[in-house]
Specification:
The complex is a heterodimer. Chain A contains five helices and five strands; from the N terminus they run βαβαβαβαβα. Chain A is an alpha/beta fold. Chain A has a five-stranded parallel beta sheet with strand order 2-1-3-4-5, sandwiched between helices. The longest helix of chain A has 16 residues, at 113-128. In chain B, helix 1 packs antiparallel against helix 2 (39-48), helix 2 runs parallel beside helix 5 and helix 4 packs antiparallel against helix 5. Classes of the chains: A alpha/beta, B mainly alpha.
């Protein structure tokens, strides 16, 4: 399977941000992108299978990104899923918490297309090692 | 967020209800006492204005609240000069009430007022971000337009020449020149479209303000809702007893069966409207 076949799940409560992320991923050559508007919906979709990569916001209703990350890391089937946090939460504490919870990468909003590309490639590289 | 504010709203309203019921019961009991005919009016005001409008205090300490109110009831019949004593107790209640209000509600109001500068900063942030986004979009659009226009103009010009060629109006040299120009144009087009595409991406990325400002606006809504609650509490506490009695009888709307039955008006908003109307505002 080539990198471009990676199946993404984009999780954000703002539809604008989901569209931006979907378009950016498309721009980077990833055409297989689905969306969820909070952690609860995301987890349900992930448990059905068919995903390789999660890009998630932090601050969302019902289930936050960090809770989603925790749920993924404690699920036997999902625990190896790469999870990239894309969030406006930009304090040291946030970053440390995300790192300890097992996030694969951390992008602070607002971000550039180049930044997203760089973080994605870094994660793909560490997956292959 | 909405559910939480609805709950606290209902809590406030339930506390208000309890306090009004308690005040009415007391008025009835006083009316049954032989000595209380003239005292009832004196007593109603402090009783219904007593500090039970702090709902958290009510929940925490209902027994203590009753204890504070108990002395006048027990003392009233057995005192030789009930009018003086009740008058004195009324003054004491007023003093206590004022002290409690200064300690409790004023702090709440202060806290709510202190959130206004925060809301102002947040609104400034929204203004800055939306301004920047608009600038980015306009700049990218202005930069992309000449690229698209020049391609359009050149394509038109070459198409005209090719039409002349098919109409057999070009000599060999002119035809050679046309093929060179056409080749150069075709080589140039992907460069121009790539640049245009980059500007389109820039326009798309500029929309990220919506997510950031959206989060900030949600926080401002929370702050203003809190402010509204505090002001309402102050209003209810300082409303005349008569208005509050009217309020009690005028609110026979039953339970909120469909909390989401109207799109624009939330149940909590309806209640606030009713309350304000009941108080004559």
């Amino acid at each position: 399977m080539g990198l471009e076949d990676t199946r993404f799940l984009v999780v954000d409560d703002f539809s604008t941000m989901r569209r931006i992320l979907r378009n950016l991923l498309k721009e980077l050559g990833f055409m297989n992108v689905q969306e969820a508007e909070d952690g609860v919906e995301a987890l349900a979709k992930l448990k059905e299978g068919n995903f390789d990569f999660v890009v998630t916001d932090w601050n969302m209703p019902n289930m936050s990104g960090i809770e989603l990350l925790h749920a993924i890391r404690t699920d036997a089937k999902l625990k190896h899923m790469p999870v990239l946090m894309v969030t406006a939460e930009a304090t040291r504490d946030n970053v440390i918490l995300a790192a300890k919870a097992g996030a694969s990468g951390y992008v602070v909003k607002p971000f550039t297309a180049a930044k997203l590309d760089e973080k994605l490639m870094k994660i793909f590289q560490s997956m292959q090692e | 967020m909405t559910a939480k504010s609805d709950n606290s709203d209902s809590d406030d309203l339930e506390a208000l209800f309890d306090s009004i019921v308690a005040a009415n019961k007391e008025a009835e009991r006083l009316a049954r006492e032989p000595s209380s005919v003239t005292l009832g009016a004196n007593y109603t005001v402090p009783a219904s204005r007593a500090p039970e409008f702090n709902p958290s205090q009510l929940r925490r300490d209902p027994a203590g609240y009753e204890a504070r109110r108990a002395p006048p009831l027990q003392n009233a019949p057995s005192t030789p000069q009930p009018a003086d004593v009740i008058d004195q107790i009324g003054h004491m209640t007023r003093t206590l009430h004022d002290a409690l209000r200064e300690l409790g509600l004023n702090k709440k109001i202060e806290k709510a007022a202190s959130s206004i500068p925060d809301a102002r900063d947040r609104l400034n942030y929204v203004a800055t971000l939306t301004h920047q986004a608009a600038e980015r979009v306009l700049s990218a659009t202005e930069a992309a337009q000449p690229l698209v226009e020049s391609m359009e103009v050149e394509a038109h010009r070459l198409a005209g020449k090719w039409q002349m060629m098919f109409d057999k109006q070009l000599d060999v040299e002119e035809f050679k020149e046309l093929t060179k120009q056409t080749r150069a144009f075709l080589q140039d087009v992907p460069k121009q479209t790539k640049a245009t595409h980059a500007y389109l991406m820039e326009i798309m990325m500029a929309q990220d303000f919506q997510d950031l400002t959206g989060q900030v606006i949600r926080k401002i809504i929370a702050i203003t809702e809190n402010l509204e609650q505090q002001l309402l509490a102050l209003l209810l506490e300082n409303a005349p007893a008569k208005a509050k009695t009217n309020l009690e009888t005028g609110l026979t709307n039953g339970p909120v069966i469909k909390p989401r039955n109207t799109k624009d008006v939330t149940p909590s908003q309806n209640r606030v409207d009713d309350l304000l109307e009941g108080l004559g505002f």
